[in-house]
Amino acid sequence: MKKLITALVATLLLITSLPANANKAGLKNSTQVPTLAVIDTAVDFTVPSIKEKLIHEVCILDWPSCPNNTKFMEGSGSTYLFQSILNTSGFSHGTQMVSVAIANNPNMNILFVRIIGNTPTGGRQVTRSETVPNALTWIYNNKDKYNIKAVSMSQGHHNLRSGSAYCPATTVDNLIKSFWDVNIPVFFAAGNNRDYSRIDWPACSPLAIAVGGADDLGSSGSFISRTSNYDSNLIDMFASVSSPVIFPGGKTGFAYGTSVSTQIAAAKWLQISTAKPHLTAQQILDLIKSTSTPIKGFLPNQTGQLINSQKAINS
Questions:
Q1: For residue 30, what pLDDT band results from cuts at 50, 70 and 90?
Q2: What's the predicted TM-score (pTM) here?
Q3: Separation between Cα atoms, residue 61 and residue 128, nearest integer Å
Q4: pLDDT for position 9
Q5: Which residues have a Cβ under 8 Å from the Cβ of 128 and sit 6 or more positions away?
Q6: Are the beta carbons of 285 and 269 closer than 8 angstroms?
Q7: How far apart are CA 69 and CA 123, in angstroms?
Q8: How far apart are CA 234 and CA 10, in angstroms?
Q9: Domains recognised in the chain with CATH numbers
Q10: β-strand partners of 188
């Protein structure tokens, strides 16, 4: 993987640049409250609604550009960037995604993993094939410590080919299986290329929960978004493609894309799993599919299931 299509830019910061109030609280009832591990760019933990839910940060990069000038850092300040950088070049993506997740399920904690490196001048560094496996491995090894019950990543690559296969086998496949074996789903975005025969990697990985985007057309109902990639054999569910979001500094706005859909789906999954803790991950997936609302696309034979957590909880 040469780069992630939705990855954004940052700037190199030294740990000594962190403000005095960069410290966050420790584990928040971690044995009782489920945690969603979000893999993305960076996060503004000074936003009150995020600070309240963020229990841990990790920086896992291919380059020594974490705040401590190495490829790895965890703990307070690991994903910190100045506000001026967080609000430029779209680097606010991580903050937006966390805000979407929390808005759709305030009864969970967030663990944030940064996977996007940066040059000293603020340019984006190439993200190599080891990045996602390294992030997933760290999350898996720490799943019990932080009570991680789901993983979401609103990043992807649309041209990771190997021969004729648009979705070649990678080490990520085995890692996702390891999560699935312990009832932890891993959610990935289908992508926004308007490709109606392929979805992004790693959403196309067989055991990944691939999430597509759905538009609410008012009285006409919900339809598969024209922007959303589509593969009838690999997409597991659809969720709203648009949502209000919070930007770094607390400014509110709006976001559109399967990145949003992925966070909504993961948050709603945790609502269901919390309400029905006796169910396995496969049973929850089956329940979601049986209680979701069928939706159609704008093309012939384009169909899907729009996740409805409340209906699943009531079933």
A1: low
A2: 0.88
A3: 9
A4: 27
A5: 1, 2, 62
A6: no
A7: 16
A8: 33
A9: 27-314 (3.40.50.200)
A10: 153, 210
